[in-house]
């Protein structure tokens, strides 16, 4: 998984900042103030406006995603989603009038009009928000960012603004934490010819392992309406040269030349040498979901808003891809002081789900402690990752080994401190608590949304990167695997005249649970704590389990 480099600590007594009073945060010990930002330097600020009826969209999403509902699969159109999310006219007027007083014109940056962006000199931003924007250095990296420790907005505008970013949010961009190892001498048994799974799959993974372990078909997808997409940040790039090497070695049965599209968002790169994350994602979507048209979204903005901008870009399309795989994330603790921003982040995925798209995120690679806890390990509670706690997406954990398949010890999982447990997983989580007893009492939020939802193999995936072969491990590997499974299931549904699977959690936690391989061994320790054990049924290490394609196929064709 890709993850942020540190945790924001010591946030005390925060006011909302959107209630006519000043928002102030104490100095973050991981950042050093350097100097006031140059008055003439340009800064881009995004303002979130309250949607007209987001609760109505949530209810509709659950309705079209529940296989027991008569509305199952009756997804919304682009215009129908926008009608739920668009802000009220009075909010638009209040905010634009306020900006006009400072000679600022905003750009609408979401299809529904609930997000506005302004590009202004720092001096104007300081005057607009009574702020003192300052350049800060991250002690754990060479990066700097411009933030303010406080800001205010007029009382007349407060109820019309949900968040302003970036202001007091010290949320770092994601950085790579997953492990990788160069393969000095590739085993000849897996190069260019049929291998002999599952014995080799105990220590190394390639597409045929996944096909054998999970009954995934190798035959190409046949429906032209099918599609799959992968997100890429931090300048990550995949190349056709590496993809061709991968297919030559691990998919010699494929007769066609693989090809994927690249779409730039926020100025993302569209060419360059292959890098680890993007190469892994592309090779294990295209190498498993054979023949499914695949797009790599290269996002140039590495902040939180790069994720939101990508979702809004997809929402602006008349036809969205049917699956989105994302192997990046953050620490949820970094969002605790700006819950409205976290909610807006999550809500863009509710919009995508309501249009029939399956959104998958990796759960993370540091067990019960999210990746940015420093070496002192002095945290008093478990640290959930973000956005895996969002109830409108599917979080993917990791496993390893065969006969038995067990939880990967690094597989992040736990319970959100921001999002409440959704009803679709209530029974499964309560069953887990009944088995867990008092273990880890006080270390996690018993009423929070539990994650991951599902899991798959995540250790030692052969991957070609810039003409060299590597092993890569992490939930970055299990997520594109599951994206491929969903894409192939969509192919079968589309051929049967059915809609795409869309938001799959309500299905997984009901009819789908019996079509998964329940993982009951292993745990996800961290910082000297034993973590959560994998037990019968759902657990916060491996979720409901790993896929059995044939069983899942029977389920999805019956609903």
TrEMBL record:
<feature type="binding site">
    <location>
        <position position="537"/>
    </location>
    <ligand>
        <name>Ca(2+)</name>
    </ligand>
</feature>
<feature type="binding site">
    <location>
        <position position="519"/>
    </location>
    <ligand>
        <name>Ca(2+)</name>
    </ligand>
</feature>
<dbReference type="InterPro" id="IPR036852">
    <property type="entry name" value="Peptidase_S8/S53_dom_sf"/>
</dbReference>
<feature type="binding site">
    <location>
        <position position="518"/>
    </location>
    <ligand>
        <name>Ca(2+)</name>
    </ligand>
</feature>
<dbReference type="GO" id="GO:0004252">
    <property type="term" value="F:serine-type endopeptidase activity"/>
</dbReference>
<keyword id="KW-0645">Protease</keyword>
<keyword id="KW-0865">Zymogen</keyword>
<keyword id="KW-0720">Serine protease</keyword>
<feature type="signal peptide">
    <location>
        <begin position="1"/>
        <end position="20"/>
    </location>
</feature>
<dbReference type="InterPro" id="IPR050819">
    <property type="entry name" value="Tripeptidyl-peptidase_I"/>
</dbReference>
<keyword id="KW-0106">Calcium</keyword>
<keyword id="KW-0479">Metal-binding</keyword>
<dbReference type="GO" id="GO:0006508">
    <property type="term" value="P:proteolysis"/>
</dbReference>
<dbReference type="Pfam" id="PF09286">
    <property type="entry name" value="Pro-kuma_activ"/>
</dbReference>
<dbReference type="InterPro" id="IPR015366">
    <property type="entry name" value="S53_propep"/>
</dbReference>
<dbReference type="GO" id="GO:0046872">
    <property type="term" value="F:metal ion binding"/>
</dbReference>
<keyword id="KW-0378">Hydrolase</keyword>
<feature type="active site" description="Charge relay system">
    <location>
        <position position="277"/>
    </location>
</feature>
<dbReference type="GO" id="GO:0005576">
    <property type="term" value="C:extracellular region"/>
</dbReference>
<dbReference type="InterPro" id="IPR030400">
    <property type="entry name" value="Sedolisin_dom"/>
</dbReference>
<keyword id="KW-0732">Signal</keyword>
<dbReference type="GO" id="GO:0008240">
    <property type="term" value="F:tripeptidyl-peptidase activity"/>
</dbReference>
<feature type="binding site">
    <location>
        <position position="539"/>
    </location>
    <ligand>
        <name>Ca(2+)</name>
    </ligand>
</feature>
<feature type="active site" description="Charge relay system">
    <location>
        <position position="476"/>
    </location>
</feature>
<feature type="domain" description="Peptidase S53">
    <location>
        <begin position="204"/>
        <end position="559"/>
    </location>
</feature>
<protein>
    <submittedName>
        <fullName>Family S53 protease</fullName>
    </submittedName>
</protein>
<feature type="active site" description="Charge relay system">
    <location>
        <position position="281"/>
    </location>
</feature>
């Amino acid at each position: 998984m890709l993850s942020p480099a540190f945790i924001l600590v010591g946030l005390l007594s925060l006011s909302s900042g959107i209630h006519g009073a000043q928002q102030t945060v104490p100095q973050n010990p991981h950042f050093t103030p350097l100097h006031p930002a140059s008055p003439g330097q340009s800064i881009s600020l995004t303002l979130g406006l309250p949607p007209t009826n987001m609760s109505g969209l949530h209810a509709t999403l659950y309705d079209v995603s529940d296989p027991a509902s008569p509305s199952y699969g009756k997804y919304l159109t682009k215009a129908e989603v926008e009608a739920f999310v668009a802000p009220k006219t009075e909010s638009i007027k209040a905010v634009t009038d306020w900006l006009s007083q400072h000679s600022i014109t905003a750009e609408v940056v979401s299809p529904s009009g609930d997000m506005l962006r302004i590009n202004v000199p720092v001096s104007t931003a300081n005057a607009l928000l009574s702020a003192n924007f300052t350049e800060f250095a991250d002690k754990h990296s060479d990066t700097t960012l411009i933030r303010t420790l406080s800001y205010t907005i007029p009382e007349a505008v407060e109820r019309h603004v949900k968040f302003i970013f970036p202001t007091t949010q010290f949320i770092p961009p994601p950085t790579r934490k997953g492990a990788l190892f160069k393969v000095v001498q590739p085993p000849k048994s897996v190069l260019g010819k049929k291998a002999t799974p599952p014995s080799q799959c105990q220590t190394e993974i390639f597409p045929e392992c996944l096909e054998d372990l999970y009954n995934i078909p190798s035959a190409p997808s046949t429906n032209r309406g099918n599609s799959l997409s992968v997100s890429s940040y931090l300048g990550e790039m995949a190349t056709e040269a590496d993809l061709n090497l991968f297919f030559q070695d691990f998919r010699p049965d494929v007769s066609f030349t693989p090809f994927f599209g690249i779409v730039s968002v926020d100025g993302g790169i569209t060419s360059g040498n292959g890098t680890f994350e993007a190469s892994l994602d592309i090779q294990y979507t295209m190498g498993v979901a054979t023949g499914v048209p695949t797009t790599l979204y290269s996002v140039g903005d590495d902040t939180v808003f790069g994720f939101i901008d990508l979702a809004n870009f997809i929402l602006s399309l008349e036809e969205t891809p049917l699956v989105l795989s994302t192997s990046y994330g953050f620490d949820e603790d970094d969002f605790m002081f700006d819950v409205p921003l976290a909610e807006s982040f999550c809500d863009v995925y509710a919009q995508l789900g309501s249009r029939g798209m399956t959104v998958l995120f990796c759960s993370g690679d540091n067990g019960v402690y999210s990746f940015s806890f420093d070496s002192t390990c002095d945290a008093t509670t478990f640290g959930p990752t973000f956005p895996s706690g969002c109830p409108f997406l599917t979080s993917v954990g990791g496993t390893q080994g065969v006969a038995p398949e067990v939880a990967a010890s690094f597989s992040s999982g736990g319970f959100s401190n921001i999002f409440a447990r959704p009803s679709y997983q209530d029974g499964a989580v309560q069953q887990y608590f009944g088995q867990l007893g008092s273990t880890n009492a006080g270390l996690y939020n018993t009423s929070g949304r539990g994650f991951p939802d599902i899991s798959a193999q995540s250790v030692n995936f052969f991957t070609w990167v810039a003409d060299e072969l590597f092993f890569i491990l992490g939930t970055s590997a299990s997520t594109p695997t599951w994206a491929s499974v969903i894409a192939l299931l969509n192919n079968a549904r589309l051929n049967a005249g059915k809609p795409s699977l869309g938001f799959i959690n309500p299905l997984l936690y009901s009819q789908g649970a019996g079509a998964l391989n329940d993982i009951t061994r292993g745990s996800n320790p961290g910082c000297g704590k034993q973590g959560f054990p994998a037990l019968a049924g759902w657990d916060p290490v491996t979720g409901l389990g790993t896929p059995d394609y044939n069983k899942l196929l029977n389920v999805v064709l019956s609903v």
